[in-house]
Amino acid sequence: VCRKQQRVMPAVNTSSLHPAVFILMGFPGIEHLQHWLSVPFTVLYITALAANSILILVIRLEKSLHSPMYLFLCMLAMVDIGLCTSTLPKVLEVLWLDNKDISFEGCFIQMFFIYIFAALESSVLVMMAYDRYIAIYNPLRYTAILSQTRIAKMLVAFLIRDIILPGLIPTLASRLPYCSSNIIPHCYCDHMAVVKLACANIIMNSYYGLSVAFSIAGFDFVLIIFSYIMIFRAVLKLGSKGARLKALNTCGSHLVVIMYFYITSIFNYVVYRFGNEIPVHVHNIFSVLCLLIPPVLNPIVYAVRTREIRQAFQKHFLKRTVILQQLSL
């Protein structure tokens, strides 16, 4: 304990009331299991990187997939890579190497990218739901409505929203004085885990973070639900029972992933403010999975179950592999 205190205390800059570094504790209460936790986290992270990278490459190589639907899938894959990469490398560094230090600036940079990519994930899901709505309700004017110009305008509007509103969260948090402790009871720089260390009133920070979460995630979720209600209405009017079941199965799997993302995100925000009875390590594991599971599930639900992407993958990867094996023999 004495050694740990000697290590932590010099990190506090008393002149500016900002610590030079923060100490990420990882998963307090289950320190003896942290190396075991690193195994599934590593597997999931590698899976997310590989699956989303392959999806981007397939869409880029196959010219027949250069349409709005697959462009949105490509956007989602890029955002998923950014979302898990903004968090998992440092989490794995804490678990594998026991390197718990993160600089003051690095902590808020990480926080900035986590919230930006989470907001972008929500925005892309909205655009994808709108894409499916147009494809079903106005298929003849699909390419005219979702032109490259309109997609670019939508993307710029969402980017402005997703940078300004969530970007103020780490900006406001970095201006607080941190004069009491620099030990964060988390495995990455979560907003509330950090600001609770401040020796100042954090009510504004807490309510602003919550308002941003509900204004972005809540508004987007309502739009997505409305789009899928209209999609379900159109699907139920299909003449073939087999076509209805197939469409409902596909839309249902999409909704499961979407609801997981939104419900867990809102739950994560609320728990840090009102869920004091939940063990810290339980919440920390849950918050990591909130950022890691969607990048793993999205390529499976949106891409693997899409026939055109499966065919493009076989065309550009499997056949080439077979040819190379035959040549080597």
Automatic annotation (TrEMBL):
Superkingdom per UniProt: Eukaryota
GO molecular function list: G protein-coupled receptor activity; olfactory receptor activity
InterPro entries per record: GPCR_Rhodpsn, GPCR_Rhodpsn_7TM, Olfact_rcpt, OR51/52/56-like
Gene3D superfamilies (UniProt xref): Rhodopsin 7-helix transmembrane proteins (1.20.1070.10)
Keyword Cell membrane attached: yes
Function: Odorant receptor.
Family: Belongs to the G-protein coupled receptor 1 family.
The protein's name: Olfactory receptor
